Amino acid sequence: QVQLVESGGGLVQAGGALRLSCVASGSIFGVNNMGWYRQAPGKPRELAATITRGGTTNYADSVKGRFTISRDNAKNTVYLQMNSLKPEDTAVYYCNVDFRSSSLKLLTSWGQGTQVTVSS
Length: 120
Description:
mainly beta, seven-stranded mixed sheet, four-stranded antiparallel sheet, 0% helix, 62% strand, elongated
């Protein structure tokens, strides 16, 4: 079993910054892709950013230039630095991790979500 623990959400004014963290722990043989997705009220969940084990990143057009995803492979941790936040960034942010379990199965896991609210 794998647990994802997210932290760093909160309330911030437009133009401000927040840093999200997500730590994966449990029966993990190895972590592959890690990412952050978000879901605003009444909207489907959408990709914000992903990062491969080798450090290749991918961003949604709406966050390019403002958000930076990074990871610490030794700690099975992924970060999302969010700068120049806008009210439209308000959403629940979910961590997602693709990993190989201790029994060598390829699995994916989601965090419980952390609320980010940007006031205008």
